[in-house]
Design goal:
The protein has 557 residues and is of the alpha+beta class. It folds into four domains: 66 residues, no CATH class; 109 residues, Roll (PH-domain like), CATH 2.30.29.170; 137 residues, PH-domain like; 121 residues, PH-domain like (Roll), CATH 2.30.29.170. It is built from eleven helices and 22 strands. β10 and β11 form a beta hairpin. α10 runs antiparallel to α11.
Length: 557
């Protein structure tokens, strides 16, 4: 009854009446406890037990009011789609206008020219209306070039205004920091952008050439006889090398020496070096004649020129030695030394075949006198004493302070971890050795052989390492010049004698056959046929390589 008092009346002073019969004014309880926890709850009645409007009734009233709202008060609802706002730094990012211009620079104190015309490129960045001016770099120009003005907003006048893209056009002068840049043309993107904005571009102008107003004065040009720069660019690091004999018979201790002659094509100079042998007792500096140009013909009036006082200059020489004067197989006199050219290197032969095909290069053998002298020096090496390897013992004879022998690093890198393994038995008249089985491993990286004995039951012989890695010479080879075993000698059924022990090869890995077939040109056919027959493989080995040695049963180390 109390809710109907004000029904239909506006909530204004004089229109609201209180219910005199109402006696309860307490607020409803909104907190409840359950299992010791306080839980909130929505009230169902108002103050004094007044009924509350439900949410559904409230939504219906709101929708009713919104539908009855006249368009005159709030206007019509526009359903058109609003375009997304794109800022300028996103829309105009990486969009640059490019103009081509030039400026003139006065030249002071020059009798040849009055000004320089220097081209530049002007970049206008639409993102932030900044500009930069760059001068293209020209090699060997003698002037500092590159970036003239870094990217910035260029001032237009004294009031603080800056240049905009609307202010730029072809044929105008752009004055920046006291320098006038005359714009001659622009690129295609700049032309398309300005025309789309309604700007009419002027006609492009040609870029002027470098203006050098030379004053009329007499000039003299000396013709060049030879282009030294061209010779340097084409002949640098190209040297002709000849092997020759110097017949020093006129000296008190006259003898014949081996020398090398280097002819440098870059400047036509010649150098002579002696070939010294170890422990020869000669001067440790092998240069017999320093690098210099050798005169071939001196002017007739200067034949008695005192060379010990002054050196001969180009003014006193008619002709110098050239590559045509060095022919293999003939004698030549260089500064009073009689030299026989008996051979040359490969590059020298190719050079003469290409540039001087009419000259015949006839290499000759070393004279017997020099050959016997070299053989005598070889015999001076003492015989091998059996301690260490042959290469290590030889180093003690070649050098006062022994150096380690040189190794074939390329071969070691290519064949690293590559091993050829064979199964073998001991060829011995002793019946106890009949059941002994061995694994012979050939290491391709250093040509060494190791032998491992397989353990056998109830034989009384302990298996294990039988021979550590070492190079094994063939029977009958000398100590001074030994002949070592190679994979070509290991055929199935062949006998390998290792330090007075004879081993017969009975089996091999599939990897052995695959490796030998890849190098068939160096392996005898008998060795390949024995491996194919034993392994049951045809002419072409299609089976996978067994590098782990499972076929011969070598135990892992």
């Amino acid at each position: 009854m109390s809710g109907n008092w004000n029904n239909g009346l506006p909530f204004l002073p004089g229109y609201s009446f209180s219910d005199v019969t109402k006696s309860a004014f307490h607020r409803p309880q909104t907190m409840n406890y359950k299992n010791g926890y306080a839980l909130p709850r929505r009230p169902t009645v108002g103050i004094g037990q007044d009924p509350l409007f439900s949410e559904q009734l409230i939504q219906q009233e709101i929708s009713k009011l919104s539908s009855e709202t006249p368009d005159i008060t709030y206007g019509s609802f526009d359903q058109s789609v609003v375009e997304d706002f794109i800022p300028a730094y996103v829309a105009l990012d990486k969009k640059v206008l490019r103009y081509y211009a030039y400026f003139q620079e006065n030249v002071l104190f020059s009798p040849e020219e009055e000004c320089h015309t220097r081209p530049v490129v002007i970049y206008y960045y639409l993102e932030d209306d900044s500009m930069s001016i760059i001068e293209p770099v020209v090699e060997n120009s003698g002037m500092p070039q590159g970036k003239r003005i870094k990217r910035q907003c260029l001032p237009k006048n004294e009031r603080g205004d800056h240049y905009q893209w609307k202010d730029l056009n072809i044929g105008m002068d752009l004055e920046v920091y006291g320098v006038k840049y005359h714009i001659t043309q622009c690129d295609a993107f700049t032309k398309e952008f300005l025309e789309s904005e309604g700007i009419v571009l002027n006609d492009p102008e040609p870029m002027p050439c470098v203006n050098r107003d030379k004053k009329t004065r007499p000039s003299y040009t000396t013709p060049s006889k030879f282009d030294n720069k061209q010779q340097f660019l084409t002949m640098d690091c190209k040297v002709l090398r000849f092997f020759a004999l110097w017949d020093d018979a006129d000296s008190p201790f006259g003898e014949t020496r081996l020398v090398t002659i280097q002819y440098y094509l870059v400047d036509d100079t010649v150098e002579i070096r002696e070939i010294h042998k170890p422990n020869s007792g000669r001067d440790p500096f092998p240069v017999l004649m320093r690098r210099q140009k050798l005169p071939k013909k001196i002017k007739p009036d200067l034949e008695t020129f005192p060379g010990c006082v002054l050196e001969v200059s180009t003014a006193e020489v008619d002709e110098y030695y050239s590559p045509k004067d060095f022919q293999v197989g003939q004698r030549i006199t260089l500064l009073g030394r009689h030299i026989l050219l008996y051979d040359c290197d490969g590059f020298t032969k190719e050079y003469y075949q290409k540039n001087h095909p009419d000259m015949k290069m006839n290499p000759s053998k070393i004279p017997k006198k020099i050959d016997l002298l070299q053989k005598k020096k070889k015999k001076e090496v003492p015989p091998y004493n059996g301690f260490g390897s042959l290469e290590d013992s030889l180093q003690n004879c070649l050098y006062l302070i022994p150096e380690p022998p040189k190794k074939n690093v390329l071969k070691m890198q290519e064949n690293d971890h590559k091993v050829l393994r064979y199964c073998a038995r001991l060829d011995s008249p002793n019946p106890v050795d009949e059941g002994r089985r061995f694994i012979l491993s050939y290491f391709l990286s250093n040509d060494m052989i190791s032998i491992y004995e397989k353990p056998s039951r109830n034989s009384g012989i302990i298996g294990g390492l039988f021979l550590e890695k070492t190079r094994v010479p063939k029977p009958g080879s000398t100590l001074d010049d030994p002949d070592f075993y190679s994979p070509a000698d290991f055929a199935i059924g062949a006998t390998v004698e290792v330090f007075s022990r004879r081993f017969v090869l009975t089996d091999a890995d599939h990897y052995v056959l695959k490796y030998l077939e890849s190098n068939a040109s160096q392996i005898p056919c008998q060795t390949l046929d024995s491996l194919r027959q034993k392994l049951g493989v045809g002419t072409t080995n299609n089976q996978p390589a067994d590098q782990n040695g499972d076929d011969v049963g070598e135990p892992s180390s």
